[in-house]
Amino acid sequence: MKSPSLIRALVAFLLAVPLSTSLAFSDDSTSPNIILLMSDDQGWGDVGFNGNEVVQTPHLDAMAAAGVRFDRFYAAAPLCSPTRGSCLTGRYPFRFGILAAHTGGMRVGEITIAEMLKKREYATGMFGKWHIGWVKPDEVGTRGFYSPPSHHGFDEYFATTSAVPTWNPTVTPDDWDSWGNKPGEPWKGGFPYVHNGVEAKENLSGDDSRVIMDRVIPFIEANQSQPFLATVWFHAPHEPVVAGDEFQKLYPQAGSKRKNYYGCITAMDQQIGRLRTKLRELGIEKNTVVFFCSDNGPSDGLTKRKVASAGPFKGHKHTMYEGGLLVPACVEWPGTIPAGTSTDVRCSTVDFLPTVASIVGDSMATKANRPIDGIDLMPVIRGETKARDRSLFFGYRRLHQGIDGQAIISDDWKLLREAKKNGRVRLYDLAKDPFEKKDLSAEQPEQAERLRKELELLDASCQRSRDGADYRY
After folding, report:
1. pLDDT at position 167 over 50
2. Mean pLDDT for the chain?
3. C-beta of residue 232 within 8 angstroms of C-beta of residue 35
């Protein structure tokens, strides 16, 4: 029998803790809403919170200031499709077989964040650029296959297979002279968006980021009383990059290319602000984790014209240098993540799944019968983890023209093979040379050989996964 003094102490403790507070803590701590925001081809230097004093990104800057800014955040590949798959699976692209853009599609054997959360009774939605499989069943191509978001755990989706113009997404821009259609013609048939399996034909004009957010907001409003996952992958500022007049006018001193590029980013930023405002209007911001990053470094052509920026880093999209892999990134969770913090721990898009798994209390990342390459970012965010406990592996392969680049970062050492025919192998000490100015492969042959062997082992592990070791298909 318990002693009277022990019973009195227990009663006093229970009376001191409001029941509603206890329940709220339980609900909020185990089932927060998850929002994954991603821009397309936005360079590390193309955002205010990384020091750009020209491009206007007030809402992203506010988000970074209200949470954690990642100073060394890496895309899993220097181009879009492989990185997108890594965000959802926590695995290197070479594991699931999407090695370049328009190449293959997400396999149903992969476990995505959406599938993990759906089992925990989350509503799941995907909005924007999918690009890891066709979204229309009658699309036929030699480099991909039908694999829409609904095959990978998403209840609702409003998505395109690949890029669209960032202004009037159904029409080819007037000055467009690259791949695709001729100016003024319908873009990819005129109806590139699919909403839950049906071609969308309304509310498709003007700013594309607004077109996307017009579908995100109703999804959040409809599911505000239950936990939800909203994956929002903007097309901005991927080419064809066009901004409306109201956004171009914000940059009167810029040339035409910069007006469109900067204006397009500011238009996307405005919609991110609209999202953050809606969360606060609904009173759910403290129970919502919002991540933001880009999918790779800035466009090759726009970087060469000094329109897009990788900041002080070498390289751009399609290269294995830091400028092709480092991207702007931050996360906000009011009341849980301290405001005004930053970290220079090397983090990556492969870290999203294990982080979300940790946040919701799912054991998938620790008990999966397959390699999970990412880490839980919460100890990094709390300042408990000062360095990554494993290497980072990057790859980009398109055997046409001999494109086959790889890189590994182990501690502060980086070994890379340039993503071009007969690409050179280079070694850098990122602690002393973050801008990759001095190749040390000849001076440090032992270090180069150590990383080469580790890269070889990682590549072989990914090859086994790609060939079916992790699941039947």
Report:
1. yes
2. 92
3. yes
12 token code pair: 């006093």
Q: What residues form DSSP beta bridges with 233?
A: 38, 128
With H, G, I as helix, E, B as strand and everything else as coil, classify residue 290: strand
Q: 208-222 and 256-281 helices cross at what angle (nearest 10)?
A: 10
* Mean pLDDT of the region 39-44: 98
d(CA 285, CA 272): 13
Query: What angle is formed at CA 266 by the lines to CA 276 and CA 157, rounded to 5 degrees?
Result: 55
Q: CB under 8 Å to 91, separation ≥6 — which residues?
A: 85, 110, 350, 353, 370, 371, 372, 373, 374, 465
Amino acid at 3: S
**Which of 60, 176, 117, 185 minimizes the C-alpha distance to 361?**
117
Torsion of CA 221, 275, 303, 350, to 10 degrees: -60
Q: Which residues pair with 263 in a beta bridge?
A: none
How much of the chain exceeds pLDDT 90, in percent? 85
Place of tokens 């990819």: 188
**How do strand 228-233 and strand 33-39 relate by DSSP bridges?**
parallel
User: Of 266, 162, 262, whose CA–CA distance to 209 is shortest?
Assistant: 266
Q: Dig out the tokens for 129 from the structure.
A: 């650029």
Which residues on adjacent β-strands are paired with residue 127?
A: 158, 232
Q: What does the alpha-carbon distance between residue 206 and residue 396 come to, in Å, rounded to a whole number?
A: 34
pLDDT tens-digit readout, 254-305: 999 999 999 999 999 999 999 999 999 999 999 999 999 999 999 999 999 9
pTM value is: 0.92
CA distance 329 to 43: 10
Other beta carbons within 10 angstroms of residue 147's beta carbon come to 20
The domains found in the chain, sorted by start residue, are: 31-381 (3.40.720.10), 392-466 (3.30.1120.10)
Residues 309-329 pLDDT 10s: 999 999 999 999 999 999 999
Contacts with 347 (C-beta within 8 Å, 6 or more apart), sequence order: 70, 72, 73, 74, 329, 375, 377, 380, 388
pLDDT at 9: 39
